[in-house]
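Tutorial handout. Part one gives the primary structure; part two gives the three-dimensional structure as tokens.
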Amino acid sequence: MGITLYHFPPSGPSRGALLSAKSVGIDVDVQIIDLFKNEQLKEDFIKVNPQHTVPTLVDGDLSIWDSHAIAAYLATAYGKDDSLYPKDPKRRAVIDQRLNFDCGTLYPRIRAICAVGWDITPYANVAAWVSRCSLAIPGYAEANQVGADAFGKAVRSKLAPGQL
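Part two.
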């Protein structure tokens, strides 16, 4: 039985889980769950994830959700070494701290900036990080950009003219 990722391309966290799989070099069976059509509320998906959120990863009898948990699991279970998620408790604590900072602080702010297509070049560190990611992660453009563009389009469609 292979690994299945329930994925919604416009979701940044969902794209993060897919990028994590690509980073460790594994193929996953991507199943699209369209949140715009409430597919996360279908009975079959709720059996997989009672919180009905994406991303959700199923690996055998394991079903986990939250992009950070998925990334840590994939790096631990399938990473070629511990470079992405170190075994050393102090080095791992730094990674965990950054993952928690991302979910509580960074991601909400980045989403607000990037979702509507704002220019990130004034944010040199953010722009450099995005550039490094695009070069270092296999399949970055395919796994990330199409969904990011779809998310931005959805957000912009809800804004009043001139609201940007």
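Part three, for discussion. The chain has one domain: 3-158. The first helix runs from residue 12 to 24.
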